[in-house]
Amino acid sequence: MSETSRDAVLARIRQGLAAGPAPLPLRPDFVAPVHPPLSSPDPVVAFAESFQRVGGEFYYCETLEHLAKQIAGFRQRQQVGAPYVWEPDLQAVLRAAGVAFRADEQDFIAQADLSLTSCEALVARTGSVLVSAATASGRRLSIYPDQHLVLARPSQVVSEIGEALRVIQSRYGSQMPSMVSLTSGPSRTADIEKTLVLGAHGPRRIALFLLEEGENNGE
Questions:
Q1: Residue of 3, 150, 180, 187 with fewest CB within 10 Å of its CB?
Q2: How far is CA 30 from CA 26, 27, 33, in A?
Q3: Angle between the N-to-C axes of helices 64-78 and 88-97, in degrees from 0 to 180, rounded to the nearest 10
Q4: Alpha carbons 214 and 65: distance in angstroms, whole number
Q5: What is the reported pLDDT for 199?
Q6: Could you tell me if 147 and 80 are in contact, meaning their C-beta atoms sit under 8 angstroms apart?
Q7: CA-based angle 95:96:100, to the nearest 5?
Q8: Which alpha helices (DSSP H) does the chain contain, by range?
């Protein structure tokens, strides 16, 4: 380094030292929310937008009759048979709606193209569906079939993941389910040559049917 260059460097150092220490950063506001506001003041609307953004198919159903039409239309478009449904409460709702389903496990491995389960909660922020192994659907119906249908209610929508986890804690206490999973859209991976593949580790398609609450809607 030449004398001129050395002098220039030292001059900048002296100038920096003369300015005094750098100001401290502002104290973080630990009370302020981490995330920005949801896309809609209505968490149900925000969930529907987030769920579709991550690749899910959203169907709003006002009545049992509407639910039956929506499921029938989905099956016709996808050319699939009746879904496997193992939860007694869901079976009762579908019977009331006149929706065909498979309650047994016969030929499940070979013919599990479609399943229908409940969920623990819906997260508006991420469009995620929180499922667990605590129901009669177990682990298999939300993971193994090629296409996964979820039947939920508006009251199950929460804003953030933390709220969904608190729902689980409140519901099960010390008897937590053996499996709790946040499903955000169809199963996807790009591990091999960065090529996006759907259905590699779970259902290739997920659709949610949000049935409005009411005495005539299976409650």
A1: 3
A2: 12, 9, 8
A3: 90
A4: 13
A5: 61
A6: yes
A7: 30
A8: 3-18, 43-53, 64-78, 88-97, 108-111, 161-172
Nearest to 127 by CA among 25, 202, 55: 55
**Stretch 178-206: mean pLDDT, rounded?**
80
pTM comes to 0.83
What the block records as the tokens of 204 is 């290739």
Counting DSSP H helices and E strands in the chain, the numbers are 6, 10
139 to 32, 45, 144, 193: CA distances (angstroms): 37, 28, 8, 30
pLDDT at 215: 63
What distance in Å separates the CA atoms of residue 211 and residue 62, rounded to the nearest whole number?
A: 6
The structure tokens 């206490």 sit at: 173
Residue type, 197: V
